Amino acid sequence: MVNENDMARMEEDEEVDSYEKMEAEDAARIQDEDVRGAIRAIISHRNEVSLNYCYGYAAVSREMVLHTNEFNTQVLYILNNMTHWRGAVAASVRSTLKSYLKREGK
Questions:
Q1: Average pLDDT per 10 consecutive residues for the chain, totaling 106 residues
Q2: How many domains does the chain have?
Q3: Domain range enclosing 77
């Protein structure tokens, strides 16, 4: 038999679960926006010699859907072709893309 205290605890647990789910969804959405922002940063620095091939991969990836094998592979190409890009923006872009791939299990 369920008493009032048990019912209240169950409702609180449901609220906490719902809140945690919303937080996780918000975090994933923000991270997705960060990935798109990192790709835009590469494109905006397209005149840098160290991004010759990287720019092409980044430009193509703008049209792709996140969280697909195709996009994940494209991100790997981007990372492999930006190894000579230096500076704070480059470090931020690299970090963002690496954390995205880690989250994707790549």
A1: 63 63 66 93 94 94 94 96 94 93 86
A2: 1
A3: 4-104
